[in-house]
Amino acid sequence: MSKPINETKLTIQLEVVTELWIRAENQPLDFYEEFAELLIQFDDIYRSGSQYFGYINAWCDWLDEYDIYDLDFDEVVEELKCESFDYYQDYFKAYESRQLKDLRRHRENEKRNLESLSRKLDRALSRYSKSEVVRVDIAYLQSSHDIIDIQMFYQDLEELRKAISKRKDPFHELVDFAWALEQGETKGYHCHLLLIFNGHQRQRGWAIADKVGKLWKQITNDEGCYFNCHDPEQIAKYRELGILGIGRIHRDNPMEVRNLRNAGAYLVNPEKEAQHLRVKLSPKMRTFQ
Q1: Which of 273, 233, 274 shows the shortest CA–CA distance to 108?
Q2: pTM, rounded to two decimals
Q3: Can you give the residue ranges of the YagK/YfjJ C-terminal domain (predicted)?
């Protein structure tokens, strides 16, 4: 029985290794062995029909062309040695334009998302003279990363979205929300969640964020974890620096509104390229809402 594969870590590794091989002046040490190991691992998680990012399409196309399912490690190595390193380097270089195109599209999407978020904030803040803005980051325990794939992540988020749409505790008096889906090598699949409540009815952002985090743990059968962005020490530090953009926001206070916009902009920062999703279930799967 093969050991579980950490999808987030592996897809990032494929991206990094491909770039290194393209730039290499000489054949890397143990190139064929590393190539074979990565191919075998990726073959275990590869989903034909999903949308992969940039360089990873080179690995998808290779697996579509060469069936290695019934081959063991040594057999894959021998199969790969039929071609030179220069051959493989040229093969991966052919996908450089795809990587650059997808990175460019990612930056453009994030800019559009920032504009969308700005309009969303305008509408939400216009509803009431004061709002309670809550930030919570949801993810998975590192011990669960080997079993969490993009499909499970999406399904868990769908359950959370359904709970949000019902507007029941802890989402009662919710005016609007935004979330951004990301992927990190150590953090795995995660989501930055911003919730805007009617400030006349809701307060105590820490307690709300804590309830949302506990709901996420429930949805994920305790495989999920969360970070409450309303940590008292952090809040005090941001307040002292004059950059506090969550908690109580008054519509007629320009500094509070500006700080909220800056805090919200972090969700869709186009410079966070290393956090982009390397795989989506389909081209229509949204990473921002």
Answers
A1: 273
A2: 0.92
A3: 125-219
